[in-house]
Design brief:
Layout (H helix, E strand, L loop, with lengths): L1 H7 L20 H8 L9 H11 L12 H9 L2 H15 L3 H35 L3 E6 L2 E6 L8 E5 L7 E13 L1 H4 L5 E2 L18 E2 L4 E13 L5 H4 L1 H4 L19 H20 L6 H27 L6 H12 L6 H17 L3 E3 L3 H6 L4 E4 L11 E7 L3 E6 L11 E5 L17 E3 L10 H12 L4 E5 L2 E5 L2 H12 L4 H6 L6 E6 L7 E8 L2 E9 H6 L1 E5 L6 E3 L2 H15 L3 E11 L11 H4 L3 E10 L4 H12 L3 E5 L4 H11 L5 H4 L4 H7 E3 H6 L2 H6 L6 E3 L3 H13 L4 E5 L5 H6 L2 E5 L5 H6 L2 E3 L4 H38 L16 H11 L1 H8 L22 H28 L18 H24 L20 H8 L1 H19 L3 H5 L8 H35 L8 H6 L5 H4 L5 H5 L1
Parallel strand pairs: 9-23, 9-26, 19-22, 23-25, 24-25, 26-27, 27-28
Antiparallel strand pairs: 1-2, 1-3, 3-7, 4-5, 4-6, 4-7, 8-28, 10-11, 10-22, 11-12, 12-13, 14-15, 16-17, 17-18, 18-21, 19-20, 21-22
Amino acid sequence: MAKKAATLEGHVSGQANKPMSKPAHSLTLKEVVEELKTEEWDGLDDAEAKRRVEEYGSNELGEAESVSPLKILIAQVANAMTMVLILAMAVSFGIKSWIEGGVVAFVVGLNIVVGFFQEWSAEKTMDSLRSLSSPTARLIRDGQQITVPSAEVVPGDVIEVKVGDTIPADIRVFDAVNFETDEALLTGESLPVRKQEDATFEEKTGPGDRLNVAYSSSAVTKGRAKGIVFATGVYTEIGAIAAQLRETKSRVRPVKRKENGKAKPHRYLEAYTLTTTDAIGRFLGLNVGTPLQKKLSKLAMLLFCIAVICAIIVLAANSFSSRQEVIIYAVATGLSMIPASLVVVLTITMAAGTKSMVKRHVIVRNLKSLEALGGVTDICSDKTGTLTQGKMIARGAWVPGIGTYTIEDSTAPQDPTAGHVRFGSNSPSQMDLKAGGDACGERVSSEKLEGHNHSGFGEFLKVASLANLAAVKYVHDKWEAHGDPTEIAIQVFAARFGMNRSHLVKTDGAEWEDLVELPFDSDVKRMSVIMKHKSGNYAFTKGAVERVIQSCTTYYADGNEQSQPITEEFREEILSHMQALASLGLRVLALASKKYPGEVQKGAEVERASVESDLVFRGLIGLYDPPRPESAVAVRQCHEAGIEVHMLTGDHPETAKAIAIEVGILPSADRYKKISADIAKSLVMTASEFDELSDDQVDELAVLPLVVARCAPSTKVRMIEALHRRGRFCAMTGDGVNDSPSLKRADVGIAMGQAGSDVAKEASDIVLTDDNFASILAAIEEGRRIFDNIQKFVLHVLAENVAQAGTLLVGLAFKDSTGLSVFPLAPVQVVWIIMATSGLPDMGLGFERAVPDILNRPPQSLKKGIFTVEFLVDMVVYGLWITLLCLSSFVLVVYGFGDGTLGSGCNDTYSDDCDLVFRARATTFACLTWFALFLAWEMIDMRRSFFRMQPGSKRYFTQWAIDVWRNQFLFWAVMVGFVTLFPLIYIPVLNTAVFKHAPISWEWGIVFIMAGIFFAGVETWKWCKRFYFRRKSAKATGKVDKNMEIEDRVFGRYYSDDHDGNARTDMHEKA
């Protein structure tokens, strides 16, 4: 920070990173543009932006806390599991068991070193991901609108901001409409500040009075604007006082006081007690991290208690003897139950999972959502830009008394010269629009298009062009557009006929001037502007058809100046024409206008009702937003994964229905006919219909709507609550400020990275960088994979713990001539097995790819979590199976092929009398080590055979080798444990003095045979599970016809008896 402070010396408030002739608030917009060497329309080019990043540095305030090696090292030492190992080491040294104490000390040191580097890597990964989920900025570079992380903003960038955005840098405002920002963080002013782009101020004007400048970190509360960035990072006004804003959260519980500020003595005791328990909870990991991390920390504490009980059992079995070897064995038995690597492996698995999600266009903002994604049963998605491409093209327009215009062969959203225009005098409901071609009228040549720009159609075009914030311009030999995709499409349509807003408003001597803008409101579903013309002021409105025609009182029946009152019959006629356009999948908007009475000052506050009333209806325009090619595939995969997809959109029901059928959210037209009328009515509802229902009535619906049209933000919240009452687990998408309540209320809130506001992103759990529905499915797949892998390595650890504890406890039955237990495993062997077979193999399981059928099974139950009945039974079966084989190998060597002599003092030193015990111990050690390692491979798929994990593969005998080699981290982790066994058995002194076993020869035959039996037993158990779950599934859903279309399997439960006859099976009831 010293370096930064030095560079700030002499910096003047309001100046740029590189000082200009005057502070930005004292310069006109033109002067700011010239001094920063940028352009209002094109912004900077990419090369210049990169150069300026190098020159000025990142747009950061410098307060981000970097990864601290010291903190990570302390965390490795000062955690519950390591402290248990240190305690065991202290006990070993305390009873002068130097070898065992030395080995435990080595394991502690190795765990700390390995854990440090693993945690360091995980923290660096999470640090980079946090930077990805930081606020973004919408810039114009090279004439194109792009979204970049706020840290990449440089002086000279042209930035666009709207309601809900956080301003990423200090900007000189222009093109401001009703633009207000909250500057309380900087100035302490509680009320939003209205900005004035044309004003300039004295150099010494204070920050709160610079009304032509908007500041970094302030929030946009109203309107929209563009701005030229002049200061970034520590050179911004907020950067200059950033140090004052840095806070550290106090971990001390406050004392509860009375209104007079006094507190009774017991309140101090309460605060101190809670602070102490919080600290202990943090140390043990019981109150920090994600729900699963907390659950595993609690599991670790439970296992610690079990470990203490196991140690007591060992002591009791030997009459609480104080002999050194008994105490050390008790400690080793206790250690066998401690999953030392569990929480570390979980952290690394989650970090790796979030990193892989970034490659699939998903940024995780909240780690708990990783666990939640695997249990999602319903996705509530927006349509525009998520299921569709967000690249709209105007396909048709109807003007009463004139006729219908259609656009064909145009695939360029920004080019008003692309494609052809047809004109027919009939209205949409009287034309076969689906047929296209001549059925839509005669083709109009491009030379004659401007000739249509008159009379009623001219008024229609004025609304299309002026009630519009988008700009279309021909620059650098190509057409470019800035603005919302919907408005760009309408502006391009108007520009086809020579009615371009850039020419009407922006040029010298322009006929029109902006006065007031009433932005689109998701509740009223309209937007309006008041424009000034030499003939007076005019109001222009566009919006949802039903809402606009409510505000209209007249129309021009013959396209001329003879107005007619709007009757109910004409309103029905408008709606029929709208349905004709909407049935093509077009988003239909209505346009209206009127002469606005009275004088209005620029930027004045006006009553919305005075503008959007007594309007003249001008016509309809239909916009086509094609579905993304991958949306239909993704929806189908959701259905196969047991996930129901709901579309919540602001569009008309017919438009929404057409797109929903196209992407597969609703059944195809022929299948739709099979659905009973009451169910069909529930499948597609408008927000008003849904909101009219009480909660009880919603709960009585046979099915919640799959499509909600004309959806308002409050409707999204009601849908989430309805799903929760049905025990469903839902993900909700959102992009606007008003979506934040539903994003917070949803189990997984999903914000749009490109179209989303900063407020929506802050409220979300994950952010889609490409705004693509298919990325939601990718996130769910990754969530399921992470859930599976966590379950796999936790099962591996716990099954191994059961096996070790079982072997050690049952082994207490082997008594020598003095009455002391002869241990089948030495303490150092136990510690080595914990170290060699847990950490790295479990991490390898955490990196395992998704199993083949991960999206062909129902979502996981998050109430049960990873500890399902199957998990618990597997843990016991695998643990006891390994215990049985290990004890059998010990018994075979001692009693089967030996004379049964257990000698005396064989727990401590090697002698000829103990040779048989030492060889049996080496055999047991080899068996347990190998079985624990091989179990990791068997855990790759918890049900499929290790030798047949890819069901579609034709490699019947070699597929297992390919699967084993594919995860090379796990492969080498197993190989290292496998190979290091041999030197431990055969290196002199190390074997007999440290590990308390002797070299073996023919006993390897027992080890290999037991390994074969181990695989046979596990494979048999998996076969029994597959048989059981197939039978269980068949009973639950009936026999499923594999040739049946997925649509019939999903929507079959909605078919009426009249249409499907015998085809309605039990499967349909449970589909």
